[in-house]
Amino acid sequence: MAFKRDKKEEEDGGGNIFLNLEKTSVLQEARTFNETPVNPRKCTIILSKILYLINQGEQLGTTEATETFFAMTKLFQSRDVILRRMVYLGIKELSSLAEDVIIVTSSLTKDMTGKEDLYRAAAIRALCSITDGSMLQAIERYMKQAIVDRNAAVSSAALVSSLHMTRIAGDVVKRWVNEAQEALISDNVMVQYHALGVLYHIRKSDRLAVTKLVTKLTRSPLKSPFAVCLLIRIVCKLLEEEGDVALSESPLFDFVEKCLRHKSETVIYEAAHAVVNLRRTTPRELAPAVSVLQLFCSSPKPALRFAAVRTLNKVAMSHPAAVTACNLDLENLISDSNRSIATLAITTLLKTGAESSVDRLMKQISTFVSEISDEFKVVVVQAIRALCLKFPRKHGVLMNFLSAMLRDEGGLEYKASIADTIISIIEENPDAKETGLAHLCEFIEDCEHTSLAVRILHLLGKEGPRTKQPSRYIRFIYNRVILESAVVRCAAVAAMAQFGASCPDLLPNILVLLARCQMDCDDETRDRATFYYHILSGDQPQFIYHYIVDHLQVSIPSLERALTQYVANPTPEQFDISTVPVSAPEPTNVPEKGHGTVDIANPVAVQPETPAKAAESYAVKLASIPELAPLPGSLFRSSDPVQLTESETEYVVKCIKHCFSDHLILQFNILNTLSDTLLESIGVTLEEPEGYEILKEVACPKLSCGETGSVYVLLKFPEDLSLSVSTFGATLKFVVKDCDPTTGEPDTDEGYHDTYMLEDLDVLLSDQVVRVMKGNWGAAWEQAEGESFFELEDTYVLTSVTSLEQAIQNIVVFLGMQPAERTDRLPQGKSAHTLLLAGMFRGGHDVLVRAKLALAEGVTMQITVRAPSQEIAELITSALG
Amino acid sequence: MDSLLLEPTLYTIKGMAILDNDGNRILAKYYNPSTFPTAKEQRAFEKNLFNKTHRANAEIIMLDGLTCVYKSNVDLFFYVMGSSHENELILMSVLQCLFDSVNQILRKNVEKRNVMENLDIVMLAMDEICDGGIILEADPISVMQRVAVRTDDIPLGEQTVAQVFQTAKEQLKWSLLK
Predict the structure, then answer these.
(1) Cβ-Cβ contacts under 8 Å, A48 against chain B
(2) What are phi and psi of B12, to 5 degrees?
(3) Domain Clathrin/coatomer adaptor adaptin-like N-terminal spans what residues (chain A) (predicted)?
(4) CA-CA distance, A698 to A715, in Å (whole number)?
(5) Closest chain B residue to the Cα of A121, Cα to Cα
(6) Residue A1, pLDDT score
(7) Which of A575, A524, A581 minimizes the C-alpha distance to A556?
(8) Could you tell me if B74 lies within 8 Å of chain A, comparing CB atoms?
(9) Cβ-based neighbour number of residue A189 at 10 Å
(10) CB of B10 within 8 Å of any CB in chain A?
(11) Which residues 653-682 of A are in CB contact (within 8 Å) with B?
(12) Which stretches does DSSP call E strand in A660-707?
């Protein structure tokens, strides 16, 4: 009994000196450090307390930290090993907080060069944490010695520290390459690993040197598994840069393949992971990797099973057939005690399995879906989305499953991904539309996420009116008006207006509901209701079209900037919205790729920059160049960068075409890859075709190795529109100076002139057109029938294409216009199709195109263009010819 | 997909942590300033991590874009975190090294109380295993050699004759030097 009580007391914290520490009192205790002689026991405990406090997240002020730091330096008097080592730790922790930390440099240098091995390694690491670029010179000699020291700990510490220091003094560390090279042949595995890391870091910008390093190392096997893993990663990086040679022919790939038979599991897995992730992997290379992963699936170690099944899941996205061999092993993992493994196994099976197994697997998942983390639930949802696309007939089962998941608890991200999936199913599969909308309606009845509710209401407004029975959605929407917060009420009002605009038989009822909404307590809701009420009751079809059915096309960031500018510089003129650039809709995902490659490994996927944002950043960048000011109007469209050189030449040049309403700015981005040259006064000579006029050129003053600079050329578009689509010859001209590769300083002041031929640059029709999303293309088409529009019709035979898909793709790319009403998706097994496109020509001219396609000995196309001027219409029809 | 190929770098470890059985931090270190820059975010992550891991002994989990491997013993939880694309087995070997080192430091009594009593040595061990995100040493024996475990802590009965002799000699030497 007595023993038990003792234990209890101890648990209450009797023995724990770290319980309830208080910062000020601990810092007070640090005064003990000043006593002589130093009491190592006592000081170690106090120092531990300080470090513990910092580790617990306690913040020290600069004065506090500096005082403690200086007190700590007194402890160098003691020769107690543990205390000294704790002092090093303290120095590292406080080095970023305290001032004048370099005071301990000499003490540390002494320890680092001293005899006591237990001090040396740790002293180096502490020393490097307080050293800055200017101080590094002073200790350089010692560092070089330490790297090649016989003691592995010292050598590792020096290598690791030098890698840390490349951030502050990359050039100095570069000089240690010979020492690192020597360390690479060390017997110690960790030294080898660290040396490889440092060597690669120093040389990584020099492709040739890296290749040499790799070739040497792949021949003589490294002892450390970590080093081999690192080498595999370096090899893969080289392989990815190699271009389009078949993998099986590359000697580098041989090495990766050989690693699949390494004795360490870590290396085997690294190699398999690398093979799976290489861009050019074909099923042939995959097979050995997959069979290794298959073996891992039955490993007793959960981490190994997890790694294997996660990688297989990745394979299943790109090469489902390769994974089918593992189906049996994966089935066994469904009941794994680690839920992450089970989830990954099931989602992999869903991707590889046959339609018949879907029901069974879904039942399996539903038994434990509530237990797994949100991130993995998202993975499941994405697998279901892929399934729906693969087996459209199964949408009933899957949709039910999704709606059950929607009702469960879950965070916004998870709910949003479910809603996204349902929405994409609705878009892909017309059969699923009504059930999908019904599920979403049910969901918003009880949805705590405002942003999702708003999105779904918007979707209902868009899709609802075109269903068989639009009236059934009105109740759901109007319920929102009664029950929800102001934001949702607004969205609901807007959705109702859509119904009113598109369904004439519902209009009287909608007007009654809108009239009621005019009593709302929220300003915005009331305003919207009033606005819609008057438009809808006004009986002016073109107003209804412009203000309700069609939506705002401008890019929001640009609009924001234009409005801020307008407010900042008051003018008597009215704000003209047509000067704001139009935003292209986000590229719609092509189903095979877009949904298939959902990144399971990284559920928190990084959002790519949207086109609107990119365009806005270009606009800001161009506006900031004084030589180009004033810009000729607002930026209409910027093309993607076009390569004008091979990617592995001395100078890499890319061109971005910025289109304005009457002008064109060509931005040439030039990268100098030669380490021993300096380029000066770089310009681009253009052979401008007929009609174009060069107004201004902005040269780039100077480019050293690895730098990218830009040259701008401002041109005026030809008056005659038919000349605007043409080809420019381009030559790079510059002054070359040889320079020292390490410092970048030129050897002489004199350079010589040189030129460099670039590939021809095409200005296309698609550079002058912005994609525009028309919510209701038919209505827009009818609107364009009036007198202000020209209509032009022509018929072509596209002999070079053999399928309708290909024809559609080509037309969309050629015209640079946005397919409307999802007409870019071809229903299966049809031999005729109508493609509807909408866009805006520079200068803000709306253009609509209807292309009727028929498949017979090539593709026959009848194209009808409606545009505000004859010239534009002609240009567009001729572009396809 | 090319982003999934791992960048060849030595910076492998994003963080290491030892938590107690209430999910409170005993020691934790995050090596990348961009992962959980503030103490508050770190706490939130640890809380979340603990909730997800303390019941199921499943060794590995993905959380907040990190791959976390873990191991528990009596009232302690050991974690090692790496990026979501990191080789899980490398992380495992670091975890194993952390655990084995602590195990040896505490003479096989891996409990919170013992960790607190030997906190200085455990801190040193963590520092020897990982330096600023780079794996410094993954072999527990080397780690033990480098942290230089204090010998005078061991009750006399458990010391070898040689150790006692060594200590006595040291003490004698010191008293003479004074």
Answers:
(1) 119-120, 123
(2) -105, -35
(3) 23-538
(4) 12
(5) B146
(6) 40
(7) A581
(8) no
(9) 20
(10) yes
(11) none
(12) 663-672, 677-687, 693-698, 700-703
Q: Which pairs from A161-165 meet CB under 8 Å and 24+ separation?
A: A161/A124, A161/A125, A161/A127, A161/A128, A161/B131, A162/A128, A162/A198, A163/A194, A163/A197, A163/A198, A163/A201, A163/B10, A163/B134, A164/A128, A164/A129, A164/B131, A164/B132, A164/B134, A165/A128, A165/A131, A165/A136
* Contact assignment for B69 to A51 by CB distance below 8 Å: no
Question: CA separation (Å) from B138 to A172, B89, B90, B97, B118?
Answer: 29, 12, 9, 5, 21
| 3-class DSSP state of A632 | coil
What are the CB-based long-range contacts (under 8 Å, 24+) for A260-264?
A260/A288, A260/A289, A260/A292, A262/A225, A262/A228, A264/A225, A264/A228
Residue with tokens 């917060």: A485
Question: Quick check: bond before B37 cis, omega within 30?
Answer: no
Cα–Cα distance, A304 to A338 (Å, whole number):
12
Nearest CB to A81 within list B2, B131, B148: B148
The stretches of A353-394 forming alpha helices (DSSP H) are 358-368, 374-390
Per-residue pLDDT of chain B (178 residues; tens, 9 = 90+): 344 677 888 899 999 999 998 889 999 999 988 888 888 889 999 998 998 888 766 788 888 888 999 998 888 999 999 988 889 999 999 999 999 999 988 888 888 888 888 888 999 999 999 998 999 999 988 888 888 665 444 444 445 566 566 667 777 776 666 5
CB A765 within 8 A of CB A803: no
Mean pLDDT of chain A: 81
Q: Using CB atoms, pick whichever of B5, B8, B88 lies closest to residue A230.
A: B8
Distance from CA of B48 to the nearest CA of A (A): 11
Residue in chain A lying closest to B131 (CA): A160
Contact A604 B64 (CB under 8 A): yes
CA-based nearest residue in chain A for residue B4? A277
Beta strands in chain B (DSSP E): 13-20, 25-30, 60-63, 66-73, 76-83, 130-131, 134-135
C-alpha closest to that of A837 among A825, A819, A851, A823: A819
| B2 at A interface, C-beta within 8 A | yes
Hey, which residues does A862 pair with through a beta bridge? A795, A852
Cβ contacts of A544 within 8 Å, gap of 6 or more: A501, A535, A536, A538
- Interface contact A338-B59, CB threshold 8 A: yes
Q: Looking at the predicted structure, is the pLDDT value of residue A159 above 90? A: yes
Helices then strands, each counted (H, E), chain B: 6, 7
Q: Rg of chain B over CA atoms, in angstroms?
A: 19
Distance between CA atoms of residues A495 and A489, nearest Å? 10
What letter represents residue B113's amino acid?
A: R
Asked if the C-beta of A410 comes within 8 angstroms of chain B's C-beta atoms, the answer is no
Chain A contact for B144, CB < 8 A?
Answer: no
For residue B93, the chain A residue with the least C-alpha distance is A266
- Residue-wise pLDDT for A824-834, tens only, equals 777 766 778 88
CB pair distance less than 8 Å for B87 and A270: yes
The ipTM is: 0.84
Average pLDDT over residues A593-609: 37
What residues does A792 pair with on adjacent strands? A865
Is the CB of B65 less than 8 angstroms away from the CB of A340? no
Rounded Cα distance between A356 and A716, Å, is 62
Phi, psi of A15 (to 5 degrees): -90, -10
At position B110, the amino acid (one-letter code) is V
Of all residues in chain A, the percent with pLDDT exceeding 90 is 6
Cα distances (Å, whole numbers) of residue A700 to A353, A495, A709, A733: 57, 52, 6, 11
DSSP code for A554: B
- In angstroms, the CA A83 to CA A72 distance is 10
Do residue B85 and residue A153 have CB atoms under 8 angstroms apart? no
**Is A93 part of the contact surface with chain B (CB cutoff 8 Å)?**
no
